[in-house]
Amino acid sequence: MKRTTVIIAGLDVHIYTTKTFATSTKPILALFALHGRLESSETGSIQNLIPPLVDAAEKHESEKGKDLMVIALDHRNHGTRLRDNTANLDFKENANHLHDMWTIQAGTAQDVSFLMDYLEAYLFPAGERSIVEWGVAGISLGGHAAWILAAAEPRVTLAIPIIGCPDYLKLMVPRAAASGIAMRPPHFPESLVKVIRAKGPPALPYTSKGHENPFLGKKILVLSGEADTLVPWTASQVFVEGLEVGPTGVKEYILFHGVGHAVPPPMVNAAVNFVLGVL
């Protein structure tokens, strides 16, 4: 596995590729790997996912198909971009948890869309390679951002939310209640709730068969822990089970029994196999 870092508009963007990537001319699947809350692109579960992805892609290489390029960056207010650690904590230590976690995941989704505009120009300025498909695999906070991107970014055709949740309010209301916080201002400002309801995936007509459903034709793999109490499956279940991707799309979801808020090897293997099916 080879890693290179390119700085784009002040963002450290880490690129992971196979050993033969540099001499290949095949089209590219570019997959963003987004880390969890309180972690970074260099630490935590994301670094248990990236090497197996690249190693499997290397073994899978053939003359046909696509090359895999995995891209990692720090979320806003994480890693090299950390400004206020309190803003990354939950309601017990941060009264603005609803505000902060939403703006971090929504902002990171915007960062990914921004990088999609310019990454090819930085990496292949002479047009020597072409990125033909974009994907995102995210863990926990990164899984929340992966859902936002799958819904809002037409270029993202592959999404793997891992122990993440598409329904932010359904996740956060019980979390606030457990800390004795009611769904009302100042912890739940009406202006913020309005934005979340307008921009979160559940606000979209995701069960529609018409062109307005942004998930149609996309490949979605959802990986959740049955014993996860931090991001419980019950917060995602209605959305995921009702999600329609149409006849050309793929939707799979796996509930790992006995698994909490963690990414054990079977989850990693499921993500790897799903990506290999796209190469």
Automatic annotation (TrEMBL):
Domain of life: Eukaryota
PANTHER family: ALPHA/BETA-HYDROLASES SUPERFAMILY PROTEIN, ALPHA_BETA-HYDROLASES SUPERFAMILY PROTEIN
Protein name stated in the entry: Alpha/beta-hydrolase
Species for this entry: Mycena venus
Lineage of origin: Eukaryota, Fungi, Dikarya, Basidiomycota, Agaricomycotina
